[in-house]
Amino acid sequence: MTRRGTGKQEDPTLTDVRRVIAGLVKELGGLREDVVTLQTQNGQLKAENGELRDEIARLKGLPPRPKFKGKPSGMEKATSKPEGSKGEKRGRGTKRDKLAVTSEVKLKAQVPPGSRFRGYEDVLVQDLRIAVEVIRYRRQRWETATGERIVAAMPAGIVGGFGPELRRFILAGHFQGQVTSERLTALLNGMGLDISKRQVVRLLSQDIEALVSEEQDVLRLGLETARWITVDDTGARHAGRDGVVTQLGDNRFAAFRTGPSKSRLAFLATLRSGHADFVVDEEALAYMRSRALAGPVIALLEAHPTRRFADEAVWQAHLETLGIDRLKVTPDPVRIATEGATWGAIRAHGLLPDTVIVSDDAGQFRLADHALCWVHAERLVYKLQPSNPAFQKAVDLTRTLIWWFYADLKTYKREPDRKRARMLRARFDRIFTKNTGYVMLDRLLARLHARKAELLRVLDRPDIPLHTNASENDIRSVVTKRKISGGTVSERGKIARDVMLGLIKTCAKLNVSFYRMLGDRLAVPNAPFVPRLPGLVRLAAA
């Protein structure tokens, strides 16, 4: 724009500038709406694509894709202060100096005449010696005066013509190294060992009763002494059918149990840790009342003189005698009574005495003293898909407030204080009762506010974790095993998988070498002694 007769450019007026800015803002708003629309359509297309892939897999007879719980939002990592945050660099230390020297070789140097010897320059080299050995055991045979035949006993640890060192290598390679039985067979054959895949599979699950017993003792003692446990589950295939693997543990131990379903009764059976009895005591009756079991049914169970039942068959016969199995009411009286009697057995054996169960809010885990995982709670907000910029802004603001609140909960865990606890409870109410105008977000916040006691359980028990990340990390080994080897076929194979994964994770938490532990338990010659894991779990609780 120029003035007449001058040829100079006119400066834009304030009205012109405002009009241009208003147009740009309007255009930017339209672009944002287009972006949100495209993101929504992209999400729908991804979901549709996933459904089509599942349908194709079903038609081909392939296993379904694993269901992931969503991408982590990053709240835990963002609110954690890394060690050495002031800028200092941590040194690597002299790790090689801690190695135990097993042999020494002196190397001679070619030197010219007149040189002086100045000692040695040491270099530590780590190596591995793997060799196939075929040992002939010549067992003495004797015959007594009475005609009895006596043959010298074989060394401990030999199973089916294979020695304990080979068994240790196979167990560690398959369960810890996640190597399939086919590849293990090929590897061993390539080393010169004459062994078939069937024999490898047998060695993975045969004669491991001592390890099964030790793992069961770990679970039992862990539940007797745990201040808290975290729990999680994931899918698993067994005998050609879909099942569920449940993980539970704390910072000292971990255990895995595979079953056909993720019901509450199945979880209670896992918590019973090997005990088979059912107990109708005050704990059991209180559980039945909390689950809305009919009063007359509770009265029948309470009035009967027999309160402890040896196994499931005896318990079911007792329910039939009382006529409880013939009642057609809701909730199912047999199921609730069985859950209650199982819970009674758990408490009667001294398990979970003052233990908080931290879970991702799956229904089967809501037992006794229960706390919710904050990472899963925040993930619900993270997974919302707002349809316009205003809703997106409300979600971003809410997530920011939750992140700040979560960071302060972590500070409270380090330095508990009653006054700060009252302030945090009031602040929780302000965050989760806020009306944002985004209906989906407001409903979610109201639902989380209704679980206030479980989300803020840490204010009364600062020793418990705020999340179930430990369980999620532990159960990844099951997911990896499922991807590599598929499912289990035999009952022994299922037990072996659960037991070995539990021992591997427990050893890692106790800073014990799983490979060395196997050497001691399988009677490998000259293997170092490793204390039993239940005793180490007890010491870690002290």
Strand content: 5-15%
- Spatial sequence of strands, sheet with the most strands: 5-4-3-8-9
Share in helix = 40-55%
**Treating each run of at least 4 consecutive H or I residues as one helix, how many helices?**
20
The succession of helices and strands, N to C, reads HHEEHHHHEEEHEHHEHHEEHHHHHHHHH
Uncertain segments of ≥5 residues (pLDDT<50)?
1-5
The SS-based structural class is alpha/beta
Mean pLDDT: 89
Give the CA-CA distance, first to last residue: 85 Å
What would you call the shape? globular
The profile of the biggest β sheet is: 5 strands, mixed
Description:
This protein is an alpha/beta fold and 542 residues long. Among the domains are: 209-275 and 349-366 and 480-541, no CATH class; 374-459, no CATH class. Helix content is 50%, strand content 8%. It has 20 helices and nine strands. A five-stranded mixed sheet has the order 5-4-3-8-9, sandwiched between helices. A hairpin with a 2-residue loop joins strand 3 and strand 4. Helix 12 (374-382) runs antiparallel to helix 13 (389-414). The model is unreliable at 1-5 (pLDDT under 50).
Task: Show the helix and strand layout.
Layout: H1 14-60, H2 75-78, E1 141-143, E2 149-151, H3 164-176, H4 181-190, H5 197-205, H6 209-225, E3 228-238, E4 241-249, E5 254-259, H7 264-271, E6 278-279, H8 282-290, H9 295-303, E7 308-309, H10 312-322, H11 333-348, E8 356-359, E9 370-372, H12 374-382, H13 389-414, H14 418-432, H15 439-449, H16 452-455, H17 469-485, H18 491-509, H19 514-521, H20 533-541
Parallel strand pairs: 3-8, 8-9
Antiparallel strand pairs: 1-2, 3-4, 4-5, 6-7
